[in-house]
Amino acid sequence: MKIGLEVHCQLLTKSKLFCGCPNITAKEPNSVVCDYCIGLPGTKPRINKKAVDFAIQAALVLNCKIAGETFFSRKSYFYPDMAKNFQISQFEIPLAKNGWLKTGKKKIRITRLHMEEDPARIVHVGSITEAKYVLVDYNRSGTPLCEIVTAPDFADPKEARQFLQELSSILEYLSIFDPNIEGSMRVDSNISLDKNDMKEAKGIRVEIKNITGFKDVELALNYEIIRQKNMLRTGKDIVRETRAWDAAAGVTRSLRVKEEEEDYGYIFEGDLPKLTISKEKITEIKKALPELASEKIKRYEKQFAVPYSLSVSITSEPDLADMFEHVIKEIDPMTAANFFAKELKKTLNFRNLRIKDIKLHPGHIIKLLKLVINNEITIKTAEFTLREMVLNPEDPEEMLKKKTMTMIVDEKTLDPIITKVISNNYRALVDYRTGKKEAFDFLVGQVMRETKGRGDPAVIRKLLAKRV
Ligand SMILES: [Zn+2]
Questions:
Q1: Does 268 fall in a domain?
Q2: How far is the CA of 264 from the centre of ligand 1 (A)?
């Protein structure tokens, strides 16, 4: 089979692509708009230089060849989300082309990378099938987009998902894109089955439009493979068409018979000047590119002997990698790497948090790890403390002091709790007595849970040892 992707990424500029409106997600519909982005006649676009710089950065990390001179074109587009009835995009000469991005061990070819304005957002009241009318929110209209088109190089839907994850990570590292903004990456995916998939297949290309989320891209493609195989199995022909992914129902639905690029009737956008990108400009942007996750992974291994699996975890967020690099100024890199990739990452995932959204200070992590290194607390206690630290960033020493004051050390209080835990976990007791030593830690954990983490582990262990 052949799978290709067209990825639309919103660029994190301060203002929109062709007007001065702020490029923000505003709650109140149609509140961040001007005469230009609602398409009033007579208004003219002005190019946002920063958006061009951002697109050049993306093109460089995707190993593309950048055009020395390019221009914008109008793409006929007669839908309510584009009030002026054309979208300013690039067609004849894209900003960049012929690049690649490594996904696993494979190089996925990038055919082209161009800039365009985002249409408005259409809101179906109720659901897409039941809505009697649509509402249009022009806040999104004019957001700078960078469209990245791949060659049909993916061998399966999973590979397409991996590519998108990798792409999202590198754009986030460049600080030109935020994967946490809803709909900041929207994907059109095309798929055609061939003789290798089923002997009846004729390589007809079907496009699935506007999928949000990596997982949904994989799901939509998997659904499409099954649908097309079922069609072929029952002797039906696959139609060349555009379909929509209905994430709630988990199916694709036919939208329209596929139009060709020529159907859009591109014409030159005379209101914008030609865009000249000098070699000096490219060199200047190249020099300022930050270190990407893949480069950090290699460096961590070479410089600190941190294994690949740990580095992948640490570099999954630019801010996490940044904090790691602060912490290893004072802490042994391997100790820190283990803590970041295991305890910290686990805690963040458990709470569904990202490091950039919390106020955790590298100094706090350094203090916490020093307590572990000096054997003042166990790694388990450090993890418990961390769980609170990510919610209320505080000095870990202060937190532990407060905790010690409320710690239950009294044997009379702990004894009945231990009795209860043993009677509720008889199986663990039998396991322990038949040689499974880890069952003891399980019981300690259960007592800790009953005391809401306030029981003194040393006293608990002592008391429990007498009882088992
Ligand atoms: Zn505007």
A1: yes
A2: 24
